[in-house]
Design brief:
alpha+beta, 8 helices, 236 residues, 31% strand, 6-stranded antiparallel sheet, two-stranded antiparallel ribbon, 28% helix, 8 strands
Length: 236
C-alpha cells in the first residue's frame, strides 16, 4: 500500500488479514469501532468508513444493536458481475496475478459486432489471460474492448486490472449482462487451469455497458471448480 492510500484502507486490510488468518470466522462479531480505533491508531470515522466499504463489498454485515459480523466468503470468484477479479481476490485477503497470453487488435466479426453494437469490421482489442489467486489458476478469459472507446491497452495494464485503468480514464460500466452456464475443459483450457481434461467449468459471458447503454467490453471466462466453489448462506 502506498503512502497516498486512504487511511480507511488500513482498517480494511487489517480486517481482511484477520479473516484470511482464520482469526475472524464466518458469522463472528468483529471488534468494536472503538477497539479498532485504538488498536490501529486511527479515528472512529476512519474505522467506520473501512467497515462500510467491506459491508458494501459483502465481506461484513451489520446488525443494529448487536455488532458487525463476518459473512461467509465464497471461495469462487466469478459470479459478481461487473466486479473485477483483482478486487474480488484482494477482498478475500489473497494476492491476484495475471499471465497475459495475447494482446492485439482484431476486426469484429458479425456476432461480436452485434453484441458490441458496432459495425462488422470495426476494431476491437483482444485480451487473452489466465488469472490467479495466490498463484492458483482460477480463470481463463478472452475479452474484447471497443477500440474506439478504449483507446490504449498495453502489457502492463493487461497484467493488472483493466477495469481499474478504465475507471481512471473515465470509462466505467452502468450495468452488465451476464450469462452463466456449465461446460467441460478441453485439453487447452485444462492445461491453463491445471485441471483434468473434461473437468467441469463455470462458463460465463458478459457484456459491460456504459450509462448510455453502449457496450464497451465483451468477455468470456472459464472458471475452474477444483479449488473453488460458490457457497450461498441463506439467512432467516
Amino acid at each position: 500500500m502506498t503512502n497516498n492510500a486512504p487511511k480507511y484502507e488500513i482498517v480494511k486490510n487489517y480486517i481482511l488479514s484477520q479473516i484470511k488468518a482464520g482469526i475472524y470466522q464466518p458469522h463472528q462479531i468483529i471488534e468494536s469501532e472503538l477497539e479498532l480505533s485504538n488498536n490501529l491508531s486511527v479515528s472512529r470515522i476512519t474505522v467506520r468508513r473501512g467497515i462500510e466499504e467491506l459491508v458494501n463489498e459483502k465481506i461484513l454485515s451489520k446488525k443494529k444493536g448487536i455488532g458487525t459480523f463476518v459473512n461467509p466468503i465464497p471461495k469462487f470468484f466469478g459470479f459478481k458481475a461487473g466486479i473485477g477479479f483483482t478486487s474480488e481476490v484482494k477482498n478475500r485477503g489473497m494476492e491476484p496475478s495475471t499471465k497475459l497470453l495475447k494482446l492485439e487488435k482484431v476486426k469484429a466479426n458479425a456476432v461480436q459486432a452485434e453484441d458490441m453494437k458496432i459495425a462488422a469490421g470495426e476494431e476491437l482489442w483482444l485480451v487473452e489471460r489466465i488469472r490467479y489467486a495466490d498463484k492458483v489458476a482460477v480463470i481463463y478469459e478472452v475479452e474484447y474492448f471497443d477500440a474506439s472507446i478504449v483507446k490504449d491497452l498495453n502489457v502492463e495494464i493487461c497484467e493488472n486490472s483493466i477495469y481499474e485503468y478504465l475507471n481512471e480514464q473515465g470509462v466505467s460500466y452502468e450495468f452488465i449482462d451476464q450469462r452463466i452456464s456449465a461446460t467441460l475443459a478441453n485439453s487447452k483450457v485444462a492445461e491453463f487451469l491445471d485441471v483434468e481434461e473434461g473437468a467441469p467449468l463455470i462458463d460465463t459471458k458478459i457484456i459491460a455497458c456504459m450509462e448510455n447503454g453502449k457496450p464497451f467490453n465483451l468477455g468470456f471466462a472459464l472458471y475452474q471448480t477444483k479449488n473453488y466453489y460458490l457457497m450461498h448462506t441463506i439467512y432467516k
